[in-house]
Write a structure and sequence with these properties.
The protein is of the alpha/beta class and 385 residues long. Helix content is 44%, strand content 22%. Strand 9 and strand 10 form a beta hairpin.
Length: 385
């Protein structure tokens, strides 16, 4: 399919923030240039008239090594004489105060102003780092995310969470800083290894099981097209996933569990903690067995379905259906991973959703309907039977 171009507006009710998510097919200069121009990235228009904007482009070195054409395109659109290009490794170690300080120093030396912006081109690490830097520079400049992995496209680029790590833990230093825009380029996924692509599908699977019977049915009917990276199928799945996350985030931006009352009454998506479906056990699986994040989340979702059925919170068919879809999408499940509760519990005990001796666990009521339910560690032992 040629000429895929779709747009979704994400609305966050805190300070009435709205920003576009644009999905386009190719990374050619003509197509990206048209998108960036319509987003106002080349110049701003206001009371002072038209003012040229400059960019600090923070990019994933690993991605650019695989796709040097993207860097050539960006340099054509944002000439080196006016703009700043900073490459960083896409590894978790880049999410540090040291790395953020270096980028901020380069921005100061280049004389960037608050009218300028940061363009974060990469996966979740680069997005977190670029967003964090943008939140600090001149007390907040625009950040535009150009995610290069499926996981970042459907998850980390949406919602405004930015952070760097500290020796004492991940994401301990950060801020909520909503992007000015998100630009998703489908052909970036052409060079994504199968393992990383399927890991990103783990988060898509979570949205389907926890939030959307329609997305669940679509994935079930079009699994082959999605796995084959058909542009039309991917565009549909991406926008559906983004719509789900944005619907949750706009009601509970800061994960308080308390949405604005006039919004909460209209939607069961009023608790951002629902996005943690599959993550409580999934994080433990990720650490204990060195699985990629999205793949561990998929395992965690099937475990959440199993526990929900054992607690009689949902019919057993929910577990069966989630297992069947995970298998069709070539995702890992609790059935094919030889995991043990005792290996995972040490990580679960450090979960941020632990209140007293109870976990605020995301359970299922049915396919497409999740809710937060307090459980005990004794409840988790049901998984061993």
């Amino acid at each position: 399919m040629s000429g895929v171009r779709r747009r979704l507006n994400v609305r966050i009710h805190r300070d009435d923030v709205t920003y576009p998510v644009v999905v386009c097919q190719r990374s050619r200069a003509t197509e990206l240039g048209d998108v960036f121009d319509k987003l106002g990235l080349f110049e701003s228009r206001g009371q002072m008239g038209r003012v040229k904007r400059r960019a600090c482009i923070v990019y994933d070195e690993g991605f650019i090594h695989a796709r040097p054409d993207v860097l050539r395109t960006l340099r054509k659109l944002f000439p080196l004489r006016d703009n700043l290009f900073l490459g960083v490794p896409g590894a978790e170690a880049s999410k540090s105060i040291f790395k953020a300080e270096k980028i901020l120093g380069e921005m100061i030396k280049a004389g960037l102003t608050r009218n300028d912006f940061c363009l974060a081109v990469g996966g979740g690490v680069v997005g977190d780092l670029g967003g964090f830097v943008a939140s600090l520079y001149h007390r907040g400049m625009d950040v535009v995310h150009v995610p290069t992995t499926l996981l970042a496209m459907v998850d980390s680029s949406i919602g405004g969470k930015t952070a760097v790590n500290h020796p004492e833990g991940k994401n301990l230093i950060g801020a909520f800083h909503q992007p000015a825009a998100v630009v998703v380029v489908l052909d970036f996924l052409d060079s994504l290894p199968d393992f990383d692509f399927q890991s990103g599908l783990g988060e898509v699977f979570k949205y389907a099981v926890g939030f959307s019977p329609a997305l669940f049915r679509y994935l079930d009917r079009h699994a082959e097209q999605v796995l084959g990276r058909d542009p039309a199928a991917l565009a549909h799945v991406l926008l559906e996933s983004v719509a789900i996350k944005s619907e949750v985030v706009r009601r509970d931006e800061r994960e308080t569990g308390v949405a604005r009352l006039h919004l909460a009454s209209r939607s069961r998506f009023a608790d951002r903690r629902l996005l943690n479906l599959g993550h409580t056990i999934g994080h433990g699986i990720e650490k204990a067995y060195a699985l990629p994040h999205g793949m561990a989340v998929a395992v965690g979702v099937t475990i959440a379905a199993k526990l929900s059925a054992k607690l009689k919170l949902c019919p057993i068919r929910c577990y069966d259906q989630s297992m069947n879809l995970a298998t069709r999408l070539l995702l890992r499940t609790d059935a094919d991973l030889d995991w043990r509760l005792k290996d995972v519990l040490p990580y679960v005990r450090r979960d941020k959703k632990l209140v007293g001796d109870r976990l605020q666990f995301v359970c299922l009521k049915n396919i497409g309907h999740s809710f937060v339910h307090p459980i005990t560690f004794n409840d988790l032992k049901l998984l061993e039977r």
